[in-house]
Structure formats: structure tokens, C-alpha cells
Amino acid sequence: MWTQKILLPLAVYAAAFVVGQEDRAQYALTDTGSTNGGNTFPGVARPLGMVKLGPDLYTGTDSYSGYQPTGNFTGFTMLHESGKGGAAKYGVVSQMPSNQTKNVLVDVSHVLASYRGQGLEQHFLGGNISVEREEDSARFFYTGFGTYDNGWNRAGPWTVYFCGRFNQPSTYKTFLGADFVTDDLVEFGEEPSYESKTARLGAVFSFTEYSLVSRVGVSLMSTDQACSNIEDEITDDMTLEDARDATRAAWNTEVFSKVSTSETNVTKLKQLYTAMYFMHLLPTNKTGENTLRESDEPYYDDIFTFWDIYRSLTPLLHILQPEYYEELIRSMVDVWRHDGWVSDARSSLHNGAVQGGTNGDIVFADAYVKGVRGKVNWEDAFSAMVKNAEVVPENNNDPRDPTGSTKEGRSALRDWLDLGFITPRFGRSVSRAVEYSVNDFSLATVALGLGRLGQFQTYYKRSHNWRNHWNKDMSALNFTGFLGPRDRDGFIAQDPLSCGGCYWQDFYYQALPWEYSFNAHHDIETMVELIGGAEQFVDRLEMTFTPGVSSGNAQFGHTLFNPGNEPSFQTPYLYSYVNRQDLTVQRSRFVAKSYFRPTPNGLPGNSDAGAMESWLLWNMIGLYPMTGQPIFFIGSPWFSDLTIDLGAGEKLEITAEGVGETTFYVQSLKVNGEQWDKTWVSWDDIFAQGGKLEFVLGKEQTEWATGDRQPSPGSHSVGEAKKLISRYLPEE
Ligand SMILES: *[C@@H]1O[C@H](CO)[C@@H](O)[C@H](O)[C@H]1NC(C)=O
Ligand SMILES: *[C@@H]1O[C@H](CO)[C@@H](O)[C@H](O)[C@H]1NC(C)=O
Ligand SMILES: *[C@@H]1O[C@H](CO)[C@@H](O)[C@H](O)[C@H]1NC(C)=O
Ligand SMILES: *[C@@H]1O[C@H](CO)[C@@H](O)[C@H](O)[C@H]1NC(C)=O
Ligand SMILES: *[C@@H]1O[C@H](CO)[C@@H](O)[C@H](O)[C@H]1NC(C)=O
Ligand SMILES: *[C@@H]1O[C@H](CO)[C@@H](O)[C@H](O)[C@H]1NC(C)=O
């Protein structure tokens, strides 16, 4: 979706929808998470579409989605992100309606400002606007482009083209800098245009009517494409209501139809469809809009970021939108093919910024083990992964962390390869070490699938390196043994309940040593041993969820578990590894019920491009993915029945007898009609060809799961691991 129509003034926000039975869009509250640090985008968008039309508010702090609940309105702009932090991005191709003088200000130089003072602010580098008269008409239309750079991902210059049409006659003036440079009435045929660096550039259109329709198309390719995008998507004879209805219909058919339930509790329905809405805003499908290369492959942009979304969002996108997902995987490979590196984060056609490991590796492995093949070139995908694991990326001298590249790749690789651990000469040394281990496990998995046994062995061994950071002398709250910083001479003293600044140059990024010590997700069996066995493991998890036990880092919540950030996402489910599924349900349910609401302030932290909402969705479904393995934790569903359309005529049906606000512990479960005693199911069990989960829920905490423990594929000798992983790889 490249175009949007706006009716002035602000009527685009009026809502008087005809509510039909299948209009699940009525439950998607698009302002959820838009205040209180959720940073979601509350404007108008299509599923995974490029255009996000919304208002920009100026308050003197970063407006990450453009919107803030207070502040001075500076215009409607066409491109935004949703649920990101860091520093503002986009806020371009602006229109500012003014009722007082019946003007529309088109400001080519408008961008969202940043106030973080880290050299991350966007710049307007130059552009052009030209105004022409519509044929046989007193109406004018405008075309042009703006070139911008920087923002959170420190992008190089990129250009957006625009084309705007009004349905009312007007006069206009263009401006450059502070001066208006044309007369009120311009002669036909003398349309001015300007090329500019850092100046203000735009045009003001003056109308005689208070109400008018403005249609704007954008493109990354050309003004011609921007103009034809309007004609393709929002024709001259369409009303605002038509455009709105078409957008609602797209959400209903492409997204909300994928999950159905007979539930009537409106709060739950709002939580379900609102969360689905926000996990379908990013990444954006910009296929056909990539100016950087000639390619027939799909192109996806606005990845914020795999660090945020690989745990819960991409595995759910795979299930709900298999076509998008395969295209995303192909796009990742194609970005490597043309730019040299796969992205961990990307927007405006540029990679950056990498917060931890190269977590695109985990996304690849997840797609591989779950049988995504289609048009994906897996040999190329694996080459992209190997580059991440072997080649030190060129330092882009990011002031956030000058010790190595933040653009792409693994900049702490030198230590990783030479020493098997990461010394503090690199920022985020400990949190990256545990992520690099999971990344290397992902390489091992795909290598095995491709029959590359030598590489399987190499990366499998490297995936154990996180153990080299286990400092058995670190202790807190009567627990000993945590992931700690070390240099060549040995460990460095570290409080498990503090991550210092928790930022780019610290030992741990955005989470406590306590939390990261649970993050070697491929090698949980070893982690349980290091912690002191199953009982200690459960006690330590319980301490994580004990109210009032919190860290010295004020940014974290009232427990050591932080519902608002990704390194904690898996933690409430880890009880299942030692067959305490009842505690998995107790803790994950508590988090979902206490920190999420379908209200503007209803997210516990930044949405992170929908990562937060996808975490909630899994909780509602009653499953949780272990990304990179074809394995799902069993939770407890919120609905007496829920059906997920898996495409190709397959579906997953979930029923829950006895479901209620206080009756949510699993008493028993049947999987495809068979009585189940394991805490987990595999991709093949319920997703590959569909399946059926029949829960019986109740008040009692029951230790019903007594069967085979969840696999810990990273905890074995190379030979045993080869057998174990081969068993769960899809047959070719
Ligand atoms: C918003 O505009 C008003 C009126 O011009 C001004 O007084 C106020 O300082 C502005 N607010 C901000 C946050 O800039
Ligand atoms: C715009 O201004 C005109 C004239 O003051 C007024 O009649 C009209 O109601 C205003 N429209 C809106 C939506 O404020
Ligand atoms: C800017 O627009 C004018 C027409 O108004 C055109 O002649 C000129 O080539 C444009 N410049 C660029 C760089 O597109
Ligand atoms: C509806 O769902 C909400 C959210 O789960 C819950 O708090 C509320 O108690 C439910 N209402 C009824 C009548 O079950
Ligand atoms: C992505 O966009 C391209 C170009 O519009 C389109 O052909 C393709 O079908 C889109 N992908 C999906 C999954 O809708
Ligand atoms: C640690 O153990 C000591 C001695 O058993 C006990 O007094 C103390 O309360 C424990 N601390 C915590 C946080 O459980």
C-alpha cells in the first residue's frame, strides 16, 4: 500500500463503522500501546504495508511513531515505524492542514526530530518540488522527492518520491528557507522547483473550501511510480469511506480471518485482534520499491529488529502468514547477496543497528527446521550465516559503541574465534557471548540439514562457548553461578543483579546478568546442571518472579523478570524443561494478565515492532515457540475454542474445557486425540499438517507432564547431537 487519502480536517480518525459479524477489525484498537512508552503507531496502515499515514507531534522528546499524546501537531506524514525506540525515524512527506486560512502546507524538509544527542538525528539533505496544473482544470498537483539520512540505524542517504493531488482548485506558493518565493497566483508553465541542502523546502496550497480530498502517493523509485501508485490504489472517484472500507477489508481477510473463536468476552477479543494488528505492521513489504539493485526477489524493509522479534514474532508470522514469511526469508538472503551482509536490523534500505548477536541466523534456522523451502536458496542462506560467523565487519565508528561495527555482522568475532569468549575490549561482551552461542547453534542446525558435517561439528562446538562465561563465584540472593565478564586473565567481579548502564558499551545490553544467565536456550540441560540441578533451577526461576525482589537498575520492574524486554521473554516457560508445566502456566499467565491491557497505556514496555504483542498472542493461544528448534512449549489457552488457519486447507484446532479466569491449570491434554504427557509439542505434531489440542483446565496445579523432557539439543556430544537434530529435521 503506497498511497493514502486524507480528508481535511482530520476526518480520517472519525469512526462510524458498519459492524458485520465477520468484522473482527472492530476489536482491533489501533491506539493500544500508543502512550506510556509502548510507542505503537496509531495511524492508518495496511498489513505489512509501506505507508503508515499518521500525525506527527512535537514535544521536545523523540516521537518514535510520530504520535505522542500531547504536543504540537506538525503534519500528517506518510512513513512511520511502529513500536521502536532508539531515535526517531521517518516522518516524511508531510501535509499540514490549517483550517484558519484554508491552507495545506506540504513540507518536503519535514522529518521526525531526535533529541538523544548521540548523532542519531535524521537530516533532510535536499529535494525538489514542482507544481503543475491538472489538465483542463484550476487544480494543481505536485511531485518531487526528498533525500534524508541517519536516524536510529545511522542510514546513509535514501530518497522518497511523492505525488500529491487535490480535488479542489487552489493557488499556491513554494518556499525555500524562510522565504516564500512565488506570487500567490503563478502563471501556468512557470512552475518553480528547488534543490536544497538543509533548508526548508515545500509549498503552500490555498483553497476556497474548508473540506477537500488530498491523495498522496509515495515511492522509493520515481515520481512516476508515486503517481501511478495513487491511480492503482486510490482512484479519483473513491471516497474516504471507500478507502477506509477497503483497508478494513484487507485486515479482515488477510489477517484477522486467520484466527477464529466462538468467544464472546469482548475484552479478550480486543486483546486477541489488537495484538494481531500490531504484529502485522513491520517488517514492511517493499517489493518493487528497492532502488539499490536489480532483483526479482522480494524485498522487506523496516526490520526493528531480529534481536527483538525472533523469539515470538517471526515464528508466529510463519504460522499466520506463510507467504509473507517465505518472502521475508528470501529477502534476507537477497540483502546478503547484494549488500554483503544479512540484516539484524534494517530500515530505509540500510542495515543497522546490531544490538547483540546476528539473530537473523536464528530466524533462518527456525525456517529451516520447520520446512520452509519454496523458492528459498538455502545454500545462499547458509553462506550468509557463515559470513556472520567468520568475517569481522568493518567498523562503522558508531559513538554508541566504537569498539566495532553496529551496522551488521558480529563485531566481537575476533575474541570469539581466538579465545572462545569475549573480553571487555568489546562492548556488550557477556550478552553477545550468549547470543553468539545460540547463533552458532543455528549454523550447526542448518549445516547438518545441508549435509555439511564438518561445519556442523565446528559450529556445534562453538555453540558451547557461552559456558566459558559461567562464573561459579558470582552470587546473589543465595544463588551462585551466573554469566559473567572475563578477560584473558580470568573473571571480573560482577553483581548478578546489576547491568551497570545496560547499554552498548556495558557488559550486558538491556537486561541483568540474572536474566541473561537463562538465555542459552539451545543448551538448557547444561544450564540446569550449572545452576545445581532441577530443584535449584526451579527455585531460581521462582526467585525471578518473586515480587519485591528487584535489581538496582531502576529501569526494571518489581521482579527480576522484566515483562517489558525480550531477554526475559522465554523465562516463564523454562520451568517446562524440568516438567513443571504448572509453574510455566502460573508465571506466564500472571505476566500476560497483569501487564497487558487493550488500552493506550496497555503495554509493559516498547512494543518493539510487535514483539510484545506476539508474546501475548502465544500466551492466549496456549503455546510458546523455542525459536530455532521445531518445538513449542505447552501453556494454557484463554479460549474455550480457537482455530488457526494454517493455509493450504490445514488448521490447528484448540479446545479448552473448563477454561476460566481462575481455572487455567492444565489437568490433562490430548494431542490429535492421543493422551499427552509431555510439556511440549513439535512442529510436525500440530503445524506441519494441522492438528488438534484438547485441554482440560482446572483450579488445581497438577504435575500432569511426566513424559519425555523437552529436548535440549545443544547439550550433547557432537555424535549424539547429530542423531538428535537429524531426527527433527524435515525429510527432504
Ligand atoms: C506548542 O506551541 C505553543 C504555541 O506556539 C508554544 O507556546 C509551546 O511552547 C509549544 N510546545 C512545544 C512543546 O514546543
Ligand atoms: C473551520 O473554520 C470554519 C470557519 O471558522 C468553521 O466554520 C469550521 O467549523 C471549521 N472546521 C473545523 C473542522 O474546525
Ligand atoms: C526539479 O523539478 C523541475 C521541474 O519543476 C525539473 O525541471 C528538475 O529537473 C527537477 N530536478 C530534479 C533533480 O529532479
Ligand atoms: C473477560 O476477559 C477479561 C480479560 O481476560 C477478564 O478480566 C474478565 O474477567 C472476563 N470477563 C468475564 C465475564 O469472564
Ligand atoms: C509483497 O509485495 C509484492 C509487490 O506488491 C506483491 O507482489 C507480493 O504479493 C506481496 N507479498 C505478499 C505476501 O502479499
Ligand atoms: C539466604 O540464606 C540465608 C541463610 O539461610 C537466609 O537467612 C536469607 O534469608 C536468604 N536470603 C534470601 C534472599 O533468600
Automatic annotation (TrEMBL):
<dbReference type="GO" id="GO:0005634">
    <property type="term" value="C:nucleus"/>
</dbReference>
<dbReference type="GO" id="GO:0006516">
    <property type="term" value="P:glycoprotein catabolic process"/>
</dbReference>
<dbReference type="InterPro" id="IPR008928">
    <property type="entry name" value="6-hairpin_glycosidase_sf"/>
</dbReference>
<keyword id="KW-0732">Signal</keyword>
<protein>
    <submittedName>
        <fullName>Glycoside hydrolase family 92 protein</fullName>
    </submittedName>
</protein>
<dbReference type="Pfam" id="PF17678">
    <property type="entry name" value="Glyco_hydro_92N"/>
</dbReference>
<dbReference type="InterPro" id="IPR041371">
    <property type="entry name" value="GH92_N"/>
</dbReference>
<dbReference type="InterPro" id="IPR014718">
    <property type="entry name" value="GH-type_carb-bd"/>
</dbReference>
<keyword id="KW-0378">Hydrolase</keyword>
<dbReference type="GO" id="GO:0005829">
    <property type="term" value="C:cytosol"/>
</dbReference>
<feature type="domain" description="Glycosyl hydrolase family 92 N-terminal">
    <location>
        <begin position="32"/>
        <end position="101"/>
    </location>
</feature>
<dbReference type="Pfam" id="PF07971">
    <property type="entry name" value="Glyco_hydro_92"/>
</dbReference>
<dbReference type="GO" id="GO:0030246">
    <property type="term" value="F:carbohydrate binding"/>
</dbReference>
<feature type="domain" description="Glycosyl hydrolase family 92">
    <location>
        <begin position="225"/>
        <end position="698"/>
    </location>
</feature>
<dbReference type="InterPro" id="IPR012939">
    <property type="entry name" value="Glyco_hydro_92"/>
</dbReference>
<dbReference type="GO" id="GO:0005975">
    <property type="term" value="P:carbohydrate metabolic process"/>
</dbReference>
<feature type="signal peptide">
    <location>
        <begin position="1"/>
        <end position="20"/>
    </location>
</feature>
<dbReference type="GO" id="GO:0000224">
    <property type="term" value="F:peptide-N4-(N-acetyl-beta-glucosaminyl)asparagine amidase activity"/>
</dbReference>
<feature type="region of interest" description="Disordered">
    <location>
        <begin position="703"/>
        <end position="732"/>
    </location>
</feature>
<dbReference type="InterPro" id="IPR005887">
    <property type="entry name" value="GH92_a_mannosidase_put"/>
</dbReference>
<dbReference type="InterPro" id="IPR050883">
    <property type="entry name" value="PNGase"/>
</dbReference>
<feature type="compositionally biased region" description="Basic and acidic residues">
    <location>
        <begin position="719"/>
        <end position="732"/>
    </location>
</feature>
